[in-house]
Amino acid sequence: MIPYVREIDFEYGRIDQISPLIRRVIANNPGPFTYVGTGTYIVGHGEVAVIDPGPDLAEHLDAILAATSGERVTHILVTHHHSDHSPLARPVAQATGATIYGRAVDRAPVEGSIQLEAGYDRFEPEVTVDTGTVLSGPGWTIEAIHTPGHTSNHICYALREENALFSGDHIMGWSTTVITPPDGDMGDYLASLEAVRMRGFSTLWPTHGAPITEPGPFIEAYAAHRLDRERQIIARLQAGDETIKAMVPTIYAAVDPRLHPAAAHSVLAHMVELVKSGRVTCDGAPGLDSRYSLKHPTT
User: Fold this and answer.
1) Per-domain residue ranges for the chain?
2) Which of 115, 280, 293, 297 is 20 to 30 Å from 126 at the Cα level?
3) Class of CATH domain 16-216
4) DSSP notation for 273-295
5) What is the helix (H) or strand (E) element at residue 156, kind and residue range?
6) How confident is the model at residue 107 (pLDDT cuts 50, 70, 90)?
7) Three-state DSSP class for 39?
8) Is there a shared CATH topology between the 16-216 domain and the 224-294 domain?
């Protein structure tokens, strides 16, 4: 079972010093995909980096600028292109002269694919980062880690001085992460989870919700949850369900029904992997409306 962390002390727009090098301001955009809202992080003192500036809300832009008043914003770091993370990057850059870092979308969503409540932003960084890219300022050093899975362009950022990771939507304390093909990929996601686990971070700072202070066991439980979902999908196939639509109400019976469309896409992400591995067959390319069956070994 995932040891969720759901308690968080905050007020919208309030500047909280949450570690020696990290401040946080939370945007007023709560919802089923954003929890209490987008947490924008400010790293350093004097010359600072802003991580995930967040949604296009004038009051949140004002809060970020107030939080960095008297300082120089040198770097704007974006984890990925969803509209609760990246839209304010350009306005913050225009107001401060900072450079925008991140990664462009590798696999764009197809027409008709699910739109998360946050939606997609047409994000383009000024500087592209990849695993191993190092950015720094007075007293702080940040290393980029490409963590595809939730999206193809997802980047986490490691703060070396505190052995901490800004985990974006890759790992969240309050919920699991939605994987939406084709931009999202379950195989990539599980590999990225393991890559983060192996780094041995002391703290994870997700963009939504509270920090994760025991990352090792949490990530292990996160990965185990995904494998358990795979077993549930196989069980539904054995029970005679042939479509994702038929499976979701049973597999996600305890989940907010508003999240069932997103859950269907996570099931699809599992199906893509199951078909790729030869354990499941479907009528054509895997899709939400495809019919699936277990591939029985020949005798």
Assistant:
1) 16-216, 224-294
2) 115
3) alpha beta
4) HHHHTTSEEESSS--TT--EEE-
5) strand 155-159
6) low
7) strand
8) no
Q: Which residues contact 183 (CB under 8 A, 6 or more apart)?
A: 105, 106, 107, 108, 109, 151, 152
> Peptide bond preceding 182: is omega within 30 degrees of 0, i.e. cis?
yes
CA dihedral of residues 159, 198, 182, 57 (deg, nearest 10): -20
Beta bridge partners of 205: 166
pLDDT tens across 148-165, in order?
A: 999 999 999 999 999 999
> How confident is the model at residue 106, as a pLDDT?
67
What pTM value is reported for the model? 0.92
pLDDT digit string, tens, across residues 51-79: 999 999 999 999 999 999 999 999 999 99
Specify the amino acid at residue 281: T
| DSSP conformation letters of 77-119 | E-S--BTTTSTTHHHHHHHH-PEEEE---SSPPPTT----TT-
Q: 76 with 142: CB under 8 angstroms?
A: no
Over residues 247-262, mean pLDDT: 90
| Fold (topology level) of 224-294 | Arc Repressor Mutant, subunit A (1.10.10)
Return the structure tokens found at 39: 């947490």
